Amino acid sequence: MKFAHLADTHLGYRQFGLIEREKDFYEVFGKVIDKIIEEKVDFVIHSGDLFENEKPSPMALLEFQKGLLKLKGAGIPMYAIAGNHDSVMHKGSIPPHVIFKKMGLKVISPINTNYMQDDIFIAGLPYYPASQSRVLKSKLVELSKKAANHDKSILVLHQSIDSYSKNQYELEIGDIPDNFNYYALGHIHDYIMDDFGKGKLIYPGSGEIWKTEELKDYHINGKGFVIVDLDESKPNVKRIKIDIPREFIERSLDYNNLESGIEGIKETIKDFDKKPILILRIDNVESDTGIVYDMIKDELGELALMIRPTFAMIKDGTIDDIFMSNASIGPEELIIEKLEGYGNSAVDKLAIELYHTLSKGRIDDSRDLIDQYFKENYNSADEEIDFKTEKIEMDEVEEEIEEETPDEESNDVQVTFKGALK
Ligand SMILES: [Mn+2]
Fold first, then answer.
1. Which residues in the chain come in under a pLDDT of 50?
2. Residues 85, 97, 150, 158: which is the catalytic one?
3. Which of 3, 363, 368, 372 registers the highest number of CB atoms within 10 A of its CB?
4. Rounded to whole angstroms, how far apart are CA atoms 108 and 115?
């Protein structure tokens, strides 16, 4: 039994507000699907953040549909959970994954927590925020008990764990049940492979460079996914690297040698198939950064998709870092662009107001804005938001869809929580 494990594909992400970057993410996803089919796996697991957000654009939905139908055509089922990006915690909300159930996508959710793929028990849960980790932990205990009845089992989660993400995590490594054979994780965008429980714990990493902070790991591990063979006593994990469509070039330049520095970069990137993203640091800047930026843009603008320079100024003997992105895109514009098409002016307004208050460190004002927003839009003043209730409502919607359209092509045993109780 061989399966592919991928995560954090973030379809629909328009990095730097550039359509080219959105297409890069689609291109990588297409390559991953082709490679999966070539490898003749038995099934696929996606560990969350399939889409960049919970309301993907038609383009993002279509790109996923294309991949899913290709897999279906090759007889390869796909299992998926919702991540923090593609799930919502509002009342009555469902993740976009649900749209694809009729096309065979097997959504692992709080109600459909587990499936059987031949003799392999596949269980998982969508992303739970740190504030809900108590609920998450109790659900993990239940899944662990169920897994005990099977020889081979896989746990699918979209969470950070303290061992791999020191600063921010929802689970400690001790919270993870140790009786599964494979831990198919998502959320951390770097590639992580570890021994855990009865087998392996893997974060395959994101498919593309979602944040420039990922470059360090990218240069070591590349981007891609893994293929896992569960026939051995311990899972055999093979890392498959998938070339990303364009490179990110990081360089430091010295203001006093700017021309030769620029010339060097030109030489490096002039024959690239696709224009790279340039991340430049210019040290010892003595003049107006605008002049330096214009000079870089004049020389390299045609060869690069995006130039992101940082300037280290010489000012009164001290060095002062200034970040300057493309002048046409400021944070406020990015927020507006990001929210475009959501059709929710109340959220737009809140986001912009929060940007203004938070960037000025006005924490109390920000809190008031949020409280006011929730009071107006979701709850009466004295009613607490109950995540659990919302989840149940979400499950009911999912179940309704299932009942209306029994999946006749699928022979998988679907044990739901409610079914198991009965
Ligand atoms: Mn992600």
1. 324-327, 380-396, 399-422
2. 85
3. 3
4. 8
